[in-house]
Amino acid sequence: MNAPHSGSASAGDPIPPQCSVIEVRVPELKRLFNAIDPSPFHEKDLDPNAEDFIVSWAKELPRTAPLALLVHLDRAAGPPDEAAVLRDAIHAFFRRRAVEFRRRLRLLFRTGRTSLLIGLAFLASSIAVGDLLATWMGGSALAAVVREGVLIGGWVAMWRPLEIFLYDWWPIRAEARLADRLAVMPVQIRYLGDDTAASWRHDWPVETAKKSS
To answer: How far apart (Å, rounded) are the C-alpha atoms in residues 48 and 58?
Structure first.
């Protein structure tokens, strides 16, 4: 993806002036989508490089700013609905991403709750075993070392649930919120080509092309 530049013809959603604009440039619109994904067009995943580019740019923008996507396309305009088709496909992709992130978050919290129960049970057992060993071995220095060692092992068992509830969940929630913003952003195509041939026929959407021909 090269640095974009201005073009005269455009199609798609109007971009409000308050939007933070993400810009990409591609020779064909199909380059934005995963070529090996056999799903119908409206269910296709974005190309990993395109997704990473868009998401990385969005992360550099203010979190409260509305987003917009401007696609600089190195060909002339195709069917009149191709900008709408592109917008719907991109929105559907990021809606799926938001659902996936929230599912991961639910699974993470479920793992955290299970880990917390196991950790608390192990910690309670460690305290009981440490006290029992200390009593059995008397008040010697070795008894104190053994008791502290068992207690440390119990607290180590609490590391994973504490990591989940303190640190692991919020980056996933942030990704879900970003996907929500990307799933509603305006999408506009700016055409850079001035050819008169129907070059869009080698691009997508094939279904639309067949219906309109």
So the answer is: 15
Q: Other C-beta atoms within 10 Å of 212: how many?
A: 11
pTM: 0.81
Instruction: Give the chain's largest Cα–Cα span.
Output: 94
Q: How many Cα atoms sit within 13 Å of 64 on the Cβ side? A: 0
Per-residue pLDDT of the chain (213 residues; tens, 9 = 90+): 443 444 458 999 999 999 999 999 999 898 999 988 888 777 889 999 999 999 999 999 999 999 999 999 998 888 888 999 999 999 999 999 999 999 999 999 999 999 999 989 888 888 887 777 767 777 667 767 777 777 787 788 889 999 999 999 999 999 999 999 999 999 999 998 776 556 667 776 544 444 444
Question: Going by DSSP bridges, is the β-strand pair 20-26/187-191 parallel, antiparallel, or unpaired?
Answer: unpaired
DSSP 3-state of 59: helix
